[in-house]
Amino acid sequence: MTRANALKPEHVPAESKQTLDAFTKNIGFTPNMMAAFAQSPIAFNAWATLLGSLSKSLDVKTRDSIGLAVSEVNGCNYCLTVHSFTAEHMAKLPAEDIILARKGHARDPKRDAAIQFARKIIETRGHVTDADLQAVRDAGYTDANIMEIVALVAMYSLTNFFNNVFNPDKDFPAVAPAGSI
């Protein structure tokens, strides 16, 4: 059951309209999550700014894989549909890599280290060990990259929590529950 209605275009607050229109133009439609999130121009525009900035961090396969791992841990079915779709169509990840990412892994050793680290951040609420930090550094990530991984985890968690609270209607293809993959 949806707990927040997606706004019709004529009801979008003026302060959210430009940001929402840009997403709609880039994606080709207005996702229900964004149409609901736009009700708060402050939260919506802050998230959009963070998303835009973090789209320059790491590479798209790693970013989408982190999004899948974080969404799986946070139990966000809406985000799993979105990240599965973008991982397949934008990052060009094969189906088996999408499943691996949901489980917190990747075939590429460097990406695997980033995904495992992101998952540890969520599972420990940021209380990672020195060994966890060293493992991601040993894989070739700088402290700046590690800060970007932390920021990605926070950004994906924000949308996970938003979608878990408000449960917008899904508008991306459904994905299998984690138990069946």
TrEMBL record:
Signal peptide: none
One function term, GO molecular function aspect: peroxiredoxin activity
InterPro entries: AhpD-like, AhpD_core, CMD-like, Uncharacterised_peroxidase-rel
Residue ranges occupied by any Carboxymuconolactone decarboxylase-like domain in the UniProt entry: 44-102
Family annotation (Pfam families): CMD
Keyword annotations from UniProtKB, A to Z: Oxidoreductase, Peroxidase
PANTHER family, alphabetized: CMD DOMAIN-CONTAINING PROTEIN, SI:CH211-175M2.5
The protein, known as: Alkylhydroperoxidase
Organism: Bradyrhizobium nanningense
